[in-house]
Amino acid sequence: MAAALGAVLAAAVALPAVAGAGQFTSRSLPAGPSGSFANIAVSRTKVWVFTRARPGAPGSIVELSSATGQQIATLEERQPGQSPWVVAVYQNHPWTTVVTADGVPALVEVSASGAFTHSVNLAFLYTPEGPFAGAAALAGSHLWAAAGSPRGAPTGLVQVSASTGARTGFLRWPRALRGFSPQGMAVVGGQIWMSDGGCKVARVTISSGRGSIFRLPRRDCQVSRIPAQISAADGHIWVGAYDTTVANNGSVAELNAGNGHLIRLISGRKYGWDLPSFVTTGPDLWVTSQTGGFGGNGSVTELSASTGRLVHVFSGRQDHFGHPFAIAAWGSHVWVLNSHSVTRL
């Protein structure tokens, strides 16, 4: 994982023409105060590439035009943070996870000056590397986040305006979810779905505040991964189900959003997935793999979100992948963050 995230910002960012994308040219990005790419978020007009913050050093955010791929600006964060596992952008408001000066993970908006504003303390867990920020997700013009106590246990779900940072709603943490550690989140159809980085998935209905926990069958789940992958759309929930090298490496489980039951396990071994990330948009589920494909540089698999059937595998020389490890979508376009480049599909 560390090797796959080890590209420096001084590397050129190639934005090739693929699968109907615009005619992009190579753009080079200046070196930032940190060093390596970490995550990507997309809005209607812009693409935001987040870099990792080193211990005691701030990160940066590179802003690109979604129409041309041309670099618009580089925003240098003014405070040390953490690797931005959770990122979101609403219009021109980028949000990311940080660890504040007092050591509490939070969801913050990054202002035009690079300052962290509108901080929301998150539920978190401790790892050997330190505290790890919990779940948050963008839903329309609002963000939902699992808020936590100073000890990290979730206390509720807070709704925040993504444009102003104002808190617009709050749900107490359901008793049914006691002991659940939210690490990934997706919001759809009036429901908040969360994954724990393991084999449990939680659902909270916004209108009632009621919660439920669903467990993947043991035969279909062997995972312990941070950050926890989850995506939701049109009555379907997708979560990472295997991340081992011995069985169905990188598989994705599809759940019924109505009852939480397993619909199917999409085998990572079948497609050669390695440490996949995934996103849903329109009728498709898109899955990245850091290795495999042409020259072992990785691939992106397009699947039908309704049937799980293969639509297309992008992995050839013309697709310019370089160990893709993050993916984001807006409308019909999918953006893939590689170790040295960004590709639009």
What can you see in these coordinates?
There is one protein chain. Helix content is 1%, strand content 46%. The two termini are 24 Å apart. The protein has a domain at 32-173: Lipocalin, CATH 2.40.128. It is globular, with a radius of gyration of 19 Å. The protein has one helix at 268-271, and strands at 12-13, 27-28, 37-42, 46-51, 60-65, 71-76, 87-90, 93-99, 105-110, 116-121, 124-127, 130-133, 136-139, 142-148, 154-161, 167-172, 184-188, 191-195, 200-205, 211-215, 230-233, 236-240, 252-256, 262-266, 278-281, 284-289, 299-304, 310-314, 326-330, 333-337, 342-344. The protein is built from 1 helix and 31 strands. Mean pLDDT is 82; it is low at 1-30. With 345 residues, the protein is mainly beta.
Write the layout of secondary structure elements.
Blueprint: E1 12-13, E2 27-28, E3 37-42, E4 46-51, E5 60-65, E6 71-76, E7 87-90, E8 93-99, E9 105-110, E10 116-121, E11 124-127, E12 130-133, E13 136-139, E14 142-148, E15 154-161, E16 167-172, E17 184-188, E18 191-195, E19 200-205, E20 211-215, E21 230-233, E22 236-240, E23 252-256, E24 262-266, H1 268-271, E25 278-281, E26 284-289, E27 299-304, E28 310-314, E29 326-330, E30 333-337, E31 342-344
Antiparallel strand pairs: 1-2, 3-4, 4-5, 5-6, 7-8, 8-9, 9-10, 11-12, 13-14, 14-15, 15-16, 17-18, 18-19, 19-20, 21-22, 22-23, 23-24, 25-26, 26-27, 27-28, 29-30, 30-31
